[in-house]
Design a protein that fits this description.
Length: about 70
């Protein structure tokens, strides 16, 4: 997997189990509102604005609010 990132000159910055996200954000006074995977992100956020954004199946997007 990392070889694919190296070929594209992409960096792997951060990884966390999606089930741990709420606990990870709590000390920063944040609460998860939405946690979506690649397909949902493409449908809800990328395609409506006519963008082409490559996202791997392991990537997720999290939206949080201040508590």
């Amino acid at each position: 997997m990392m070889r694919g990132f190296e070929k594209k000159k992409a960096k792997w910055y951060f990884g966390i189990d999606p089930l741990e996200m709420e606990r990870f954000l709590k000390p920063f006074n944040l609460r998860v509102i939405e946690d979506v995977g690649m397909r949902e992100y493409q449908v809800e956020y990328v395609k409506p604005i006519n963008r082409n954004l490559d996202i791997t199946i392991m990537e997720r997007a999290v939206r949080a609010t201040i508590i």
